[in-house]
Amino acid sequence: MATSRPKKPVHNVHNGVNQLRIIGGEWRSRKLSFPDAPGLRPTPDRVRETLFNWLAPYVPGAKVLDPFTGSGALFLEALSRGAAMGQALDASSLAVSSLKEHLGTLRCTTGQVQTADALRYLETQTATAYDLVFLDPPFNQNLLPAVCALLEERQWLAEDAWVYTESESAPSTLGLPENWRLHREQKSGRVYYSLWQRSSKPSA
């Protein structure tokens, strides 16, 4: 996402363009460029590989939502691994334009991407129940609690949906919906990577 947030150094920078690599699935090993914009970087390969190992049984046939898609790395990885359809959003028109080009290059007709503010989109659009949601919002803006509340309250989630979050704060401090169970977590540097599973009722 083209917004300011603390980032680890980005490698593979060539003439103002960065590269990401799709790890698995139909487009395995494909390398795609994305703009060298401030704060725009893919989730690291190692973290993506771990995440999709966790999610392996659940990605094929899933409906995927990525409200802060940025480089599109997670979104493209899910589509490559057999997600049935996906909707990606980003506030940066530069990021959205790049991801649209990638979908065209890959001849992907199951992924849609548009320029939008995530909070406004979730508040105003007609909800679709998604099976898998990726949340990597700009840090230091306290966006995760608000976005997660909207996902739950506006019925954007399937009954047993999986939600992946990246945050600068420990998962236990995020104040996410009570009926979300922390399934797995990992920390790399200052970033927490967490996978949650929704249930239709809050835990007792």
From TrEMBL:
The main enzyme category here is: transferase
Q: Which key words are in the record?
A: Methyltransferase, rRNA processing, S-adenosyl-L-methionine, Transferase
A Pfam family it matches: Cons_hypoth95
Q: What is the superkingdom listed in this entry's lineage?
A: Bacteria
Q: What is its EC number?
A: 2.1.1.171
Which protein are we looking at?
Ribosomal RNA small subunit methyltransferase D
UniProt-recorded Gene Ontology molecular function terms: 16S rRNA (guanine(966)-N(2))-methyltransferase activity
Q: Which family does it belong to?
A: Belongs to the methyltransferase superfamily. RsmD family.
Catalytic activity reported? guanosine(966) in 16S rRNA + S-adenosyl-L-methionine = N(2)-methylguanosine(966) in 16S rRNA + S-adenosyl-L-homocysteine + H(+)
Q: What does this protein do?
A: Specifically methylates the guanine in position 966 of 16S rRNA in the assembled 30S particle.
